[in-house]
Specification:
This protein has 476 residues and is of the alpha+beta class. The chain is 59% helix and 11% strand. It folds into 2 domains: 95 residues, Outer membrane efflux proteins (OEP); 349 residues, Outer membrane efflux proteins (OEP), CATH 1.20.1600.
Length: 476
């Protein structure tokens, strides 16, 4: 066999590899027994709008958009997920390289001296000698049973899973950041309401003191007014602390420890879009965590083939071509040429069931991955239904609280007029002030819950809708 023929065996072996059989089952996507649409979705027929990957922009808030941009650039969790993607891609390249021959170049030279006190004794001119060597060598496993191809397939699916894992981290990060931002803006609104209430309490305290001085009121009215004012001051202190904590959370999520945000107008945030009619459950395919679970299941399926292929003979080719000489000047002359080639076969005869146990392990891992995928799909279906009912009921609650707030405001106006005219005691006015303050705070929290339910919806579906958002904020 000629040396050049030996070195050409590796590409030929690669062709034989591609033509060989592949051990293990081919991946078939499992069916999931889910309803065609979500239980809590609107029954009205209609096609859903396409998903919008930049769903947070539907809130129309420039500060929120800037915070998301910062988080996508500097968040530590997202950077760690991106590094895992790079690692998985490198593993994929390593696994894919096994399908091709490895060619190595080796060279070296040495000088040695033999002993003169041997039998037979060597002449003096032969005690010192040189040895120079240079050679190309290759080794290649013929993947006749598909072990390497299944390994590459598993690595490819795991790399894909890592990409979806990063998308999951990104979706979770943006969802948490948006929720924290909405909480901060809601606290801004509650602080504004509380400070307005403090102004009202200051005015009531001054009036009660004037009435007491004029002999029209009692010391009890003054003490009640002071107590009510102190309660609002304590309420403001608590809200200031909560806002600081929310700002610190945003600083952590954006990777900007020195982040500060000025107060914003919560009322300018638009209401969330109404979910499109007839939401199909197929939208769950857009969720990165569902795709990640499926990719991991496909990788586990491919690993069964890797384990099964190990039950069959391993066939490999080896070849080398080079030169060897005692004189460096003659190293690359034809008389110094050397070569070798071989075909190796390794067949497991007895391993006490080790390889078959590994096949059983791989099959078990595939079943676990299948169950994890089914759970991921079912969990996603539940989360969408939860978000749908949460969004709908939060809207209904907000309407009721809005009626309550407007009524409480009217009651406060009447109670104030009655108190100043001397027709009612201060306790009636104090009760109206408390109810109005509580109703305004409840309305803000209900609006926040409605917006948060929209964020949950976007996260549950893997994105928002490509639909315009009219400003529908309360400005009264």
């Amino acid at each position: 066999m000629k040396p050049t023929t030996l070195l050409c065996l590796a590409p030929l072996a690669a062709v034989l590899t591609l033509a060989g059989c592949t051990a293990g089952p081919d991946y078939v996507r499992p069916t999931t027994p889910l309803p065609g649409k979500f239980v809590e979705a609107d029954d009205t027929a209609g096609a859903s709008a396409p998903l919008n990957r930049e769903w947070w922009k539907l809130f129309g808030d420039a500060s929120l958009n800037d915070l998301v941009d910062q988080a996508l650039q500097a968040n530590a969790d997202l950077q760690q997920a991106a590094a895992r993607v790079e690692e998985a891609d490198a593993f994929l390249r390593e696994a894919g390289s096994a399908l091709f021959p490895e060619i190595d170049l080796a060279g070296g030279g040495n000088r040695s001296r033999s002993s003169a006190n041997t039998v037979p004794a060597l002449p003096a001119n032969m005690l010192l000698h040189n040895d120079f060597r240079a050679a190309l060598s290759t080794s290649f496993e013929i993947d006749f049973w598909g072990k390497l191809r299944r390994g590459t397939e598993a690595a490819r699916d795991l790399a894909l899973a890592s990409h979806y894992g990063r998308d999951t981290v990104e979706l979770t990060l943006i969802g948490l950041l948006t929720q924290s931002y909405l909480a901060l803006r809601a606290l801004d609104a509650q602080l504004a309401v509380s400070r307005d209430s403090l102004g009202i309490r200051d005015k009531s305290l001054a009036i009660s003191k004037d009435r007491f001085t004029a002999g029209l009121g009692s010391q009890l009215d003054v003490q009640q007014a002071e107590s009510a004012r102190a309660a609002i001051v304590a309420q403001i202190a608590d809200l200031v602390q909560q806002r600081a904590v929310a700002q610190h959370q945003l600083a952590l999520l954006t990777g900007n420890p020195g982040l500060t945000l000025p107060p914003g107008d919560f009322s300018l945030l638009p209401l969330p879009p109404v979910p499109p009619a007839g939401l199909p459950s197929a939208l769950l395919d857009a969720r990165p965590d569902v795709r990640q679970a499926e990719a991991q299941m496909a990788a586990a399926n491919a690993k069964i083939g890797v384990a099964k292929a190990a039950l069959f003979p391993t066939i490999s080719l080896t070849a080398s071509l080079g030169s060897e000489s005692t004189d460096l000047a003659n190293l690359f002359k034809s008389d110094s040429n050397l070569w070798s080639g071989g075909l190796n076969l390794l067949l497991p005869v007895f391993d006490a069931g080790r390889q078959s146990a590994r096949v059983a392990q791989s099959a078990s891992l595939q079943k676990q991955a299948l169950a994890a995928y089914a759970k991921a799909v079912q969990t996603a279906f539940k989360e969408v239904n939860d978000a749908l009912v949460g969004l709908r009921q939060a809207g209904e609650k907000e309407l009721a609280v809005d009626v309550q707030t407007k009524a409480a405001t009217r009651v406060l106006s009447l109670a104030d007029a009655r108190y100043q005219a001397g027709y009612s005691p201060y306790l009636e006015l104090l009760d109206a002030q408390r109810n109005t303050n509580d109703a305004n705070l409840t309305f803000i929290r209900t609006r926040q819950a409605r917006l948060s339910a929209a964020v949950d919806m976007f996260k549950a579906l893997g994105g928002g809708w490509s639909a315009s958002l009219p400003l529908a904020a309360r400005k009264d």
